Amino acid sequence: ATQRAEVSMQRAARAVAEERLRIAQELHDVVAHSISVIAVQAGVGSHFLDDSAPAEARDALDAISQTSRATLAELRRLLGVLRGEDGAPSRQPAPTLSDIGELVERTRELGVPVTLDVRGTPDAEHRAVEMSAYRVIQEALTNVIKHAGETRRVEVTVAHRRDGLDVEVADDGRGLAQPTSSDLPSGQHGLLGMRERVEVWGGTLDAGPRPGGGFTVRATFPYEPAFAVEA
Question: Is 12 exposed, middle or buried (CB count within 10 Å of its CB: 0-12, 13-18, 19+)?
């Protein structure tokens, strides 16, 4: 019986590894290729702009190029994780809240007026939780860029507590439309992903329109969830 159990576990592990490799290959062949094309074309477009071109056009192309290259680097890191290459010496660590300033600055370069307010001191022992919190903020800012329209102000708040942390992204744009069918808009898929990232740590996510206009995403992460999670 023990031998059969070991064989079953080996088969399951092999199936998981094969599926991870399949996903990695799809991401590489489709997504990574497309992002590479975007980066190259943005650079080409910037090269062909003459001196009479509006500065906004050059800034937009530069932002597209920088963002796509940063996305490609992050995608390559993810591909390494899927392929089981975490131990590679060149592998960049996943971003945490210590990198949130760079994320905010990249968002500003896209023309979004973002302010950042960080309170308290980060806890180095809870890096995995901070990774999830970073992703929540990243997705919320992505939704602002895609859906908020004429946004005049976006406020990102990170509050470190002794027993956890809170993050909030609030904008004064038009917010996300509520889903009207079983087909979720892209922003709603993003909200679902954020909720999953928070709940795996035993936290809570509140997201919705603001009374005066705009949208708020607020997530609370406890450092001691009700169940153990392997980072």
Answer: exposed
Partners of residue 204 on adjacent β-strands:
220
Predicted structure pTM score: 0.62
Supply the pLDDT for residue 39.
83
Q: Give φ, ψ of 208 to 5 degrees.
A: 175, 170
Tokens of 145: 């860029």
Ramachandran sector of residue 121 (left: φ over 0; alpha: ψ -120 to 50; beta: rest): beta
Q: Reading across the β-sheet that carries 204-209, which strands appear in turn? A: 114-119, 154-161, 164-171, 215-222, 204-209
Question: Residues 217, 222, 225, CA angle at the centre, nearest 5°?
Answer: 125
Over residues 30-81, the pLDDT tens digits come to 787 788 888 888 888 888 888 888 888 888 888 888 888 888 888 877 777 7
Q: What is the tens place of the pLDDT at every residue in 119-138?
A: 998 887 888 889 889 989 99
The DSSP string of 42-87 is: HHHHHHH--TTS-HHHHHHHHHHHHHHHHHHHHHHHHHHHHTT-TT
Distance between CA atoms of residues 200 and 135, nearest Å: 13
Euclidean distance between CA atoms 151 and 158, whole angstroms: 21
d(CA 25, CA 141): 28
Please choose, from the candidates 137, 156, 139, 136, the residue with its C-alpha nearest in 3D space to the C-alpha of residue 198: 136
Nearest to 153, CA basis, from 70, 212, 219, 101:
212
Tokens of 187: 């922003």
Q: Tokens standing for 33?
A: 């290729």
